[in-house]
Amino acid sequence: MKKNLLILGCILFISTNGIAQKVNTDYDKEVDFSTYTSVSFLGWQEDASLNDFDKKRFTDAFKEEFEKRNLDLVESSGEMVIALYIVAEQKTSITAYTSYYGGGAGRGYRRGGRGGWGGGHSSTTYSESDYLEGTLVMNVFDGASKEQIWQAVATKTVNSKPDKREKSIPKGVKKIMKKFPIAPAK
User: Do 67 and 110 fall within a single domain?
Assistant: First the structure.
């Protein structure tokens, strides 16, 4: 169970703030997902570190999403097996803003006179911001055949503020699961 909680925690990197989360999915269109009734977690990278509070938030969020789809979360040997992987990458955002301050109005050509534009100047403000971007890859396999049947790749900017995670973790999980081939039961 400890390993399963760690898997869920990896998603923290893509669901911790209000920046838009991008989710792309692909799946085997020949698979009848309605035949699956249980799911278990395979494993995840060992270097992910989360506190117990976030582990519980992820566990609860995924469990809720699976229950909405009438899927039981089991310790092992699920009909579907899920592997979660996270990649965190330090990035830099570059912003440049240019202000133009025009001079005098343009002068037209006159007989014997000079033409051209009046003076003016511009100012460009340039700034860099470092941020952490996390990408979660969620691979789903058929438990019996071990064949991959679904994949989600979700990317989001990381925010380390603990007070934001309580709301954003379930929202991030919900956005990933929105594209899952098994719709929530009504």
Answer: no
